[in-house]
Amino acid sequence: MYFRPDTLDHAVQVLASSGGQILAGGTDFFPSLGDRPVTGTVVDISGLGEIRGVITEPKYIKIGGLTTWTEIIQTPLPPCFDGLKAAAREIGSIQIQNRATVAGNLCNASPAADSVPALLTLDAEVELASQVGIRRLPIADFIVGNRKTLRQPGEILSHVFVPRAIENAASTFLKLGARRYLVISIAMAAAVIQRSSTGHITDARVCVGSCSAVARRLRELELKLIGAPARAELGLLATAHDLGDISPINDVRATAAYRRDAALTLVQRALDACARGS
Which site from 28, 116, 125, 241 is most exposed, i.e. has the minimal number of CB atoms within 10 Å? Predict the structure, then answer.
């Protein structure tokens, strides 16, 4: 069966009564089928305009789950979103960015999902809507493993909320792959750095992706950075020890040892870029 509800309320009612798979942009949905036909119930939520777009609220910037990555790139946003915009430009091709959604990238929960490290450095939260009601939780808690999230079968990821706490902070995202474009990452790093009027770091968020089942914030490094001057070669403060409990794997794209070494280099470069940007 195929349903295409026109409101969020209708969509969660259909999910509650009929179950089924959610179809949004379709850029993960259809490739995952391979040569198999679509079976079972499909709930196509692509027409739900109420959960698309970016809205600035007093305490949060609210991103609709159906917002595309092209919309993220084109929307005027504070400097702390520069890293997320850079990640958005790395999601597939321009054609994919025109269709792929924020919610789809998060719910697919690939360890190599480009958006996740940047959203983790923004302390972003997800909103999940169901017939029972609405609940919110940090993205750090929402993604629990490789292709695993806490989304329940009757829930739709309706919005992402980013606190307006560090809007003027410098941010960046760096990705390493086997080629420049259209590539699954070997390693990724995102960073957000806020400094005081004296040039010293007052807030630091650093995250590594594609080197564990879920992207990891580097909490020890973040604490080390507080109070340091935001100047050239800031990245030298990051050492192999600061990578913490990342657990890279050996696969066709890279060895675990190479991923760990690359992750450190990306973190150092991301910090240097933020220091220049701040």
Answer: 241
115 closest CA partner among 145, 84, 79, 77: 84
pTM of the model: 0.95
What mean pLDDT is reported for the chain? 95
User: Residue 166 corresponds to which tokens in the numbers above?
Assistant: 């560090």
76 Cβ contact list (under 8 Å, min separation 6): none
pLDDT number for residue 32 = 83
Q: Are 139 and 122 in contact (CB under 8 A)?
A: no
d(CA 45, CA 180): 32
Give me the percent of the chain exceeding a pLDDT of 90.
88
d(CA 234, CA 271): 6
- What is the DSSP secondary-structure string of 34-55? TTPPP-S-EEE-TT-GGG-SEE
Residues of the chain with CATH 3.30.390.50: 170-277
- More confident of the two residues 188 and 31: 188
β-sheet bridge partners, residue 134:
129
Measured CA angle at 234 (ends 229, 236), to 5 deg: 135
Which of left, alpha, beta for 199 (phi over 0: left; psi -120 to 50: alpha)? left
Q: Which residues contact 50 (CB under 8 A, 6 or more apart)?
A: 7, 8, 64
Is the pLDDT assigned to residue 181 strictly greater than 80?
no
Note the residue count of the chain.
Answer: 278
2-163 sits in which CATH class? alpha beta
The DSSP 8-state label assigned to residue 245 in this structure reads T
What are the two backbone dihedrals, phi and then psi, of residue 127, each rounded to the nearest 5 degrees? Answer: -110, 130
